[in-house]
Amino acid sequence: MNILIVGAGPAGLATANFLNTKKHAVTIIEKEKKFSTMGFGIFFFNEGKKLLRKATHDRGIHAFLKQIGYKYYLNEHGKMLSDIHYNSVFHVSNYNAITSIKREDLHGLLRKHLHPDVSIKMGTTISHIDNKPDCAHVELSDGTKTTFDLVISAEGSHSQLRDLFFSYKIKKLPWVARYFWLEKTKTRFFLEWSQYATIMCMPHKNKTTMLSIESNDIYASCNEHQIVPKELQEFYTSIGVSKEEIEKGYKESYVAPMKYVYTDRWFMNRVVLIGDAQHAMTPTLGFGTSLALDDAYELATMLNTLDDSQNLKSGLGQFSTKRTHRVRTLRRINRVADFFTFHHCKPYFAFWSKHHYLSEMAAKFIDRGIRLGWKYA
Fold it and tell me: Domain for residue 128, yes or no?
């Protein structure tokens, strides 16, 4: 089959890696003119890490992964409330520990192991598409016109193809996610709660991702000049981050709204959605990239088993049925975590987080839900 993948992010590149290039002609288009190092840390559960090994044939990925053992819970003054070890919650060995990876490293690994027959066109978008039941006639921004058996939208939460062919709704939460780097200060993996923000620190091999989930009020008060909110300055000082470094981080930060995308279906004729294009969700539990790789693997596995494009509709139907159940399950778990982490239960959360055994019980409840969700969804 002749397959077009729209978007050269992790979902698009992973799909190309999983596809059998002896059976399929694969083209990737990307709207950016060159690959960027933009992007921060990614949280990988064991299942996501297994898929990354399959996509890259397990060549050298461990050099880029940072194991996460203990997670520390801090209050707004930087005082440790409790801690929990992920291995004990997920019942895994050190080899299978939860890991983090920088997005640029993930991107580089997936690009490095692409098959030479996969064509990548940078700075290219779809100018026009005629999406028919038996094929898709596509005109690209470089003027080329090609007929594809399948077009895969891996464009992320701002998908152009989703806007054209699918009904969807967006639910925004009253919070924003702010990502920035710490390059000088080395710290542990932790989560901090206050009434103003929830801050997560994700260490990597040589620098640290900071994720600050801020209320819209706090964000509005500092966004114009990208200044550090005074309500959060004490916390950053307490963990040893200098004023200069945190101000630099805020000025260079990337901010995205906390939202869910609910799409009515997975495919329409010869266009199929995967990853955030179909089911964007908040970064609360770090499901996004692992779930996108999961989509890519299941879709490519289905396509590799087809004899010809005539059976594609049936195959896409089976794929969408299977994925719908899985995504709904994981989305529910993520929304429960949203409630505990960001919503209006701060007083309750603060209470049990001050008591180690209550904190461990709640963390295990959520984390085992994650584990079972991944396993049985």
Answer: yes
Check: CB of residue 82 under 8 Å from CB of residue 117.
no
> Which residues of the chain fall below pLDDT 70?
36-39, 59, 69-70, 73, 75-76, 80-97, 193-195, 223-226, 340-377
Closest by CA to 356, choosing from 45, 80, 114, is: 80
Q: How far apart are CA 73 and CA 81, in angstroms?
A: 5
Q: Is residue 291 part of a domain?
A: yes
What's the angle, vertex CA 315, arms to CA 369 and CA 133, rounded to 5? Answer: 125
Quote the CA–CA distance of 349 and 341 in Å, as a whole number: 8
Q: How far is CA 132 from the centre of its chain?
A: 31
Tell me if 216 is assigned to some domain. no
Based on the structure, what is the number of domains in the chain? 1
Residue 26: give its domain's CATH number. Answer: 3.50.50.60
Sheet holding 41-44, edge to edge: 41-44, 99-102, 66-67
* 334 lies in some domain: yes
pLDDT in tens, 15-48: 999 999 899 999 999 999 887 655 678 887 777 8
Strand partners, 199: 192, 212
Q: In 3D, which of 247, 273, 251 has the Cα closest to residue 262? A: 273
CA distance 4 to 178: 33
Do 287 and 281 contact (CB within 8 A), yes or no? yes
Q: Cβ distance 304 to 26 under 8 Å?
A: no
Expressed as residue numbers, the domain containing 293 is 2-169+259-376
